[in-house]
Amino acid sequence: NDGDVESPRKLLSVEEMSLLINSVIDTRDKAIMTLMAKTGVRRGELIAMDIDDINWGEQSIMIKRNQFKKRSCRTIFFDDETARLLKRWCSQREKLNSSTKALFIGEQGGRLKRNGVYSMVVKYAQKVELHNSQSSRPEDHLSPHCFRHWFTTHLRRAGMDREFIKALRGDRRRDAIDIYDHIDSEELRRAYLAFVPQLGI
């Protein structure tokens, strides 16, 4: 289970995540990394997001049902820190005249690709010495999935209810009776905002 603290995957402290994201100057890249850290969203879900999936009033993003059938909870929430960066990116993105609806676009103006997210994360992590490509140890490598691991672990350490964490992560449905149908969305949003780590960005 990638949510377990015992995972050999690299786990950043809140301070290290803050250092990493604050080292990023590029508006798009900063927004992507903040969104991954603050929502635990999967890389595939991130690149599939469109601008009109965002609900600015509720500070949430809807994950598309048809593309991610196994995802249990389709709404992800974001906080004020993330909202500021997303808005900054969206206003910059408008000037790029891209024909795609994608929230995050690549150099050529099309939807950002999986390997684009990976190489971006590694580039910034190497700069602040949080990724060592020479090492064969998984705990020396920072991949996009480490953001999901960070999100899960720090919510758990802050004392968030385990079922809420599972709902926010969008863990795959395992039981015939879906517990997520019984979690109140507003209650989940309030819990998220109370427990999500602040990064000073």
Summarize the structure.
The protein is mainly alpha-helical and 201 residues long. It has helices at 14-22, 27-39, 43-48, 80-94, 114-127, 145-157, 162-169, 185-195, and strands at 54-55, 60-62, 75-77. Helix content is 44%, strand content 4%.
How would you explain this protein's 3D organization?
This protein is mainly alpha-helical. 32% of the residues are buried. A hairpin with a 4-residue loop joins strand 1 and strand 2. The chain has helices spanning 14-22, 27-39, 43-48, 80-94, 114-127, 145-157, 162-169, 185-195, and strands at 54-55, 60-62, 75-77.
Calculate Rg over CA atoms.
16 Å
Largest beta sheet: strand ordering: 1-2-3
The structural class is mainly alpha
Say what oligomer this is: single chain
Please tell me the overall pLDDT.
Answer: 88
Fraction in beta strands: under 5%
Q: Number of helical runs?
A: 8
Distance between the termini: 30 Å
Q: Low-confidence stretches at least 5 residues in length (pLDDT < 50)?
A: 1-6
Helical content band? 40-55%
Q: Summarize the main sheet.
A: 3 strands, antiparallel
General shape: globular
Order of helices and strands: HHHEEEHHHHH
Number of strands: 3
